[in-house]
Specification:
This protein is of the alpha/beta class. The chain has one domain: STAS domain (Transcription Regulator spoIIAA, 2-Layer Sandwich). The protein has four helices and eight strands. The strands form two sheets. The protein has a six-stranded mixed sheet with strand order 1-2-3-5-7-8, sandwiched between helices. It has a two-stranded parallel sheet with strand order 4-6. The chain starts with a strand and ends with a helix. The mean pLDDT is 92.
Amino acid sequence: MGIRTVTAGPTELEWDDIERYATLRFVERGVGGREEAVALVSQLVDWVSEPELRPYRLLVDCSEMVDVDASWRAAWGEHFREHRDIATLSWFNANPRIQLIVLMFIKGTGVTGMPFESEADARAYLAEAGATA
């Protein structure tokens, strides 16, 4: 299958079947809302369940992310509370508000993850997680 991509509003989610690695990014400056989150979570569930539910990693590029509303956080939070034992996440380039949201998200969902200043550090963290999965 290879690399697959879906876009919802200002966001894009990319999935690598072979590496079991997703990348979420805002492709334009914007705010994440319920509609986008529900569409992206639904697609991610389909991808991570093929052919069976196994560990996966998610890299989140926060460069163009201005904010995310409560419904965005709720949709993603529900998903990662259910998948906290098989998902590892990292975020990079987050503004101070998004950094705080990320830290609260990690605490609230129990998911394994960390925010990083640079993309290289975020990718290195996920590479290490992939080696132990």
